[in-house]
Design brief:
mainly alpha; 7 helices
Length: 191
Protein backbone atom coordinates (compact mmCIF):
# COMPACT_ATOMS: atom_id res chain seq x y z
CA UNK A 1 0.00 0.00 0.00
CA UNK A 2 2.76 2.44 0.99
CA UNK A 3 4.60 1.63 -2.25
CA UNK A 4 1.45 2.27 -4.32
CA UNK A 5 0.92 5.67 -2.69
CA UNK A 6 4.59 6.57 -3.12
CA UNK A 7 4.50 5.51 -6.78
CA UNK A 8 1.35 7.61 -7.34
CA UNK A 9 3.00 10.62 -5.74
CA UNK A 10 6.13 10.15 -7.85
CA UNK A 11 4.03 9.85 -11.02
CA UNK A 12 2.06 13.00 -10.20
CA UNK A 13 4.95 15.01 -8.76
CA UNK A 14 4.87 17.58 -11.50
CA UNK A 15 4.62 21.34 -11.58
CA UNK A 16 0.93 21.42 -12.51
CA UNK A 17 -0.10 19.16 -9.61
CA UNK A 18 2.08 21.13 -7.20
CA UNK A 19 0.48 24.39 -8.34
CA UNK A 20 -3.05 22.94 -8.16
CA UNK A 21 -2.62 21.63 -4.62
CA UNK A 22 -0.93 24.87 -3.57
CA UNK A 23 -3.93 26.79 -4.94
CA UNK A 24 -6.30 24.55 -2.95
CA UNK A 25 -4.25 25.04 0.21
CA UNK A 26 -4.17 28.81 -0.33
CA UNK A 27 -7.94 28.82 -0.96
CA UNK A 28 -8.51 27.14 2.41
CA UNK A 29 -6.36 29.76 4.14
CA UNK A 30 -8.34 32.50 2.37
CA UNK A 31 -11.64 30.92 3.47
CA UNK A 32 -10.38 30.71 7.07
CA UNK A 33 -9.26 34.33 7.19
CA UNK A 34 -11.78 36.14 4.99
CA UNK A 35 -14.99 34.09 5.00
CA UNK A 36 -15.17 32.33 8.37
CA UNK A 37 -13.09 34.20 10.95
CA UNK A 38 -14.75 37.66 10.74
CA UNK A 39 -18.28 36.37 11.49
CA UNK A 40 -16.86 34.05 14.14
CA UNK A 41 -15.10 36.96 15.84
CA UNK A 42 -18.34 38.94 15.73
CA UNK A 43 -20.23 36.03 17.33
CA UNK A 44 -17.65 35.59 20.14
CA UNK A 45 -16.94 39.24 20.97
CA UNK A 46 -13.58 39.25 19.22
CA UNK A 47 -12.14 35.76 19.68
CA UNK A 48 -10.57 33.98 16.74
CA UNK A 49 -11.29 30.26 16.33
CA UNK A 50 -9.09 28.39 18.81
CA UNK A 51 -7.44 26.54 15.92
CA UNK A 52 -5.96 29.83 14.70
CA UNK A 53 -4.48 30.90 18.02
CA UNK A 54 -0.92 30.25 19.15
CA UNK A 55 -0.18 29.03 21.68
CA UNK A 56 -3.21 27.14 22.92
CA UNK A 57 -3.38 26.38 26.63
CA UNK A 58 -6.01 24.86 28.86
CA UNK A 59 -6.33 28.26 30.57
CA UNK A 60 -7.02 29.92 27.23
CA UNK A 61 -9.69 27.33 26.47
CA UNK A 62 -11.31 27.94 29.86
CA UNK A 63 -11.28 31.68 29.21
CA UNK A 64 -12.70 31.63 25.67
CA UNK A 65 -15.15 28.72 25.48
CA UNK A 66 -17.82 30.55 27.53
CA UNK A 67 -18.05 33.04 24.62
CA UNK A 68 -19.06 30.27 22.19
CA UNK A 69 -22.82 30.49 21.70
CA UNK A 70 -25.13 28.90 19.14
CA UNK A 71 -24.06 31.24 16.31
CA UNK A 72 -20.33 30.80 16.90
CA UNK A 73 -20.75 27.02 17.22
CA UNK A 74 -22.57 26.90 13.87
CA UNK A 75 -19.79 28.96 12.27
CA UNK A 76 -17.18 26.79 13.99
CA UNK A 77 -18.63 23.68 12.34
CA UNK A 78 -17.98 25.31 8.95
CA UNK A 79 -14.50 26.22 10.09
CA UNK A 80 -13.90 22.57 10.97
CA UNK A 81 -15.22 21.35 7.62
CA UNK A 82 -12.54 23.44 5.91
CA UNK A 83 -9.99 22.46 8.57
CA UNK A 84 -10.50 18.79 7.77
CA UNK A 85 -9.84 19.46 4.07
CA UNK A 86 -6.92 21.86 4.61
CA UNK A 87 -4.43 19.41 6.21
CA UNK A 88 -5.00 16.86 3.45
CA UNK A 89 -4.39 19.48 0.77
CA UNK A 90 -1.34 20.87 2.57
CA UNK A 91 0.08 17.37 2.99
CA UNK A 92 -0.62 16.50 -0.64
CA UNK A 93 0.94 19.77 -1.82
CA UNK A 94 4.09 19.09 0.19
CA UNK A 95 4.30 15.43 -0.84
CA UNK A 96 3.87 16.32 -4.53
CA UNK A 97 6.46 19.10 -4.22
CA UNK A 98 8.88 16.63 -2.68
CA UNK A 99 8.11 14.05 -5.40
CA UNK A 100 8.72 16.64 -8.09
CA UNK A 101 12.02 17.61 -6.48
CA UNK A 102 13.08 13.96 -5.99
CA UNK A 103 12.33 13.28 -9.66
CA UNK A 104 14.20 16.45 -10.69
CA UNK A 105 17.22 15.68 -8.51
CA UNK A 106 18.03 12.30 -9.97
CA UNK A 107 19.91 11.43 -6.76
CA UNK A 108 20.01 7.78 -5.73
CA UNK A 109 19.72 8.62 -2.03
CA UNK A 110 16.51 10.62 -2.59
CA UNK A 111 15.12 7.86 -4.81
CA UNK A 112 15.77 5.30 -2.06
CA UNK A 113 14.26 7.55 0.62
CA UNK A 114 11.19 8.19 -1.55
CA UNK A 115 10.79 4.45 -2.05
CA UNK A 116 11.11 3.92 1.71
CA UNK A 117 8.20 6.24 2.49
CA UNK A 118 9.72 9.74 2.64
CA UNK A 119 6.85 11.07 0.53
CA UNK A 120 4.35 10.08 3.22
CA UNK A 121 6.04 12.21 5.91
CA UNK A 122 4.16 15.40 4.83
CA UNK A 123 0.92 13.77 5.97
CA UNK A 124 2.08 13.38 9.59
CA UNK A 125 1.00 16.93 10.57
CA UNK A 126 -2.36 16.26 8.90
CA UNK A 127 -3.00 13.29 11.18
CA UNK A 128 -2.25 15.35 14.28
CA UNK A 129 -4.31 18.25 12.91
CA UNK A 130 -7.33 15.97 12.41
CA UNK A 131 -6.95 14.57 15.93
CA UNK A 132 -6.64 18.10 17.31
CA UNK A 133 -9.78 19.09 15.36
CA UNK A 134 -11.75 16.24 16.90
CA UNK A 135 -10.60 17.33 20.35
CA UNK A 136 -11.55 20.95 19.72
CA UNK A 137 -14.97 19.94 18.39
CA UNK A 138 -15.59 17.87 21.53
CA UNK A 139 -14.55 20.82 23.70
CA UNK A 140 -16.69 23.34 21.83
CA UNK A 141 -19.83 21.20 21.89
CA UNK A 142 -19.37 19.65 25.35
CA UNK A 143 -18.84 22.99 27.09
CA UNK A 144 -19.92 23.44 29.85
CA UNK A 145 -18.23 21.66 31.49
CA UNK A 146 -14.75 21.64 30.04
CA UNK A 147 -13.60 18.02 29.68
CA UNK A 148 -10.12 18.55 31.14
CA UNK A 149 -8.64 15.34 29.71
CA UNK A 150 -9.74 16.25 26.20
CA UNK A 151 -8.46 19.81 26.67
CA UNK A 152 -5.04 18.60 27.81
CA UNK A 153 -4.76 16.03 25.01
CA UNK A 154 -5.83 18.62 22.41
CA UNK A 155 -3.14 21.03 23.61
CA UNK A 156 -0.49 18.28 23.37
CA UNK A 157 -1.71 17.27 19.90
CA UNK A 158 -1.34 20.90 18.81
CA UNK A 159 2.26 20.95 20.03
CA UNK A 160 3.08 17.68 18.25
CA UNK A 161 1.49 19.02 15.06
CA UNK A 162 3.61 22.18 15.25
CA UNK A 163 6.77 20.10 15.70
CA UNK A 164 5.80 17.92 12.72
CA UNK A 165 5.15 21.04 10.64
CA UNK A 166 8.59 22.38 11.56
CA UNK A 167 10.21 19.09 10.53
CA UNK A 168 8.28 19.19 7.23
CA UNK A 169 9.40 22.75 6.57
CA UNK A 170 13.02 21.86 7.27
CA UNK A 171 12.86 18.76 5.05
CA UNK A 172 11.17 20.77 2.30
CA UNK A 173 14.02 23.28 2.30
CA UNK A 174 16.63 20.51 2.28
CA UNK A 175 14.95 18.56 -0.52
CA UNK A 176 14.48 21.67 -2.67
CA UNK A 177 18.11 22.73 -2.20
CA UNK A 178 19.38 19.21 -3.00
CA UNK A 179 17.16 18.88 -6.05
CA UNK A 180 17.88 22.30 -7.51
CA UNK A 181 21.58 21.96 -6.73
CA UNK A 182 21.76 18.54 -8.36
CA UNK A 183 19.82 19.69 -11.42
CA UNK A 184 22.05 22.77 -11.70
CA UNK A 185 25.23 20.69 -11.50
CA UNK A 186 23.93 18.30 -14.17
CA UNK A 187 23.07 21.27 -16.40
CA UNK A 188 26.57 22.75 -15.96
CA UNK A 189 28.13 19.40 -16.81
CA UNK A 190 25.94 19.18 -19.91
CA UNK A 191 24.12 16.04 -18.79
Amino acid sequence: MMRAITDWLRAHGRFTWVVATFAGTAACIWIFNVVITPPFEAATSGYRPIDLQFPITVDLLQEQLPAYGPDSRRIYVWFQVVDFIFPALAGLFTALLWAWMVNLAGLAILDRLAGAGLLLVPFVPAVFDWLENVGFLILVFAYPPLPMGVAEISVVLREIKLIAMTVNGTLTGLIVVLALGSAGIRRLRGG
